[in-house]
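Sequence in, structure out. Go.
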Amino acid sequence: MKRKIVISEKAHQETFDYFVSKGFEIIKFKDQLKPYKAVSHHPDMFMFYDDKLFVEKNIPLDGIRCGSLGEKYPETVKFNLAKIGEFVVCKYDVVSETIKEHLRQKNYKIINVNQGYSKCSTAIVGNAFITSDKGIYDACIKEGITGLLIRPGSIELPDLDYGFIGGTCVSFDDVVYFNGNITKHPDYESIKSFITKTGKKIDYINIPLTDVGSFIIIERSE
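Output:
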């Protein structure tokens, strides 16, 4: 299997170099100039990947097209779903109808939350998760999913007060990679302990921890 990874074009060059060194093919996600500047280059705003890629209709990637992203919330969160094992966390009523049909066919268990930016807010580590959103945390814990609640903030996101943990990292193989120095986060020791217990290790680049939108890994056969 050769893997592709979709990363915001505004990520640090060292991040691109890191994934190339790990054997990934990089797809740089270009700024879409909507719905607003802070997140207009974030892949998780415009696509959702399960075993298929679902994309906003204007995105030039091979995938199932799912209509247009709205300009205002909640029409901005049609693709913002966090899949954790057999569970999918989202603001279900505004999810793309095409994606809803896929979720029904897969018989996933839906965790409906008020936080529309579910994927942005959630770092997925295997079948566990990390979030600063209390609503997401409580809803997932109630379903028996292993999670860690961290404090909000301490993550850069230009044009907003702060970013979110889901847009800083990705889990693959035995690694959770962070787009920035996670050791500077005030909850680092808890994050490190939590990730270690899942059997994974941490890797990162030495820049301020920055939300560039979720990294989306796509697997395909050669």
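Check: The chain is about 15% helix and 25% strand. The CA atoms of residues 190 and 207 lie 20 Å apart.
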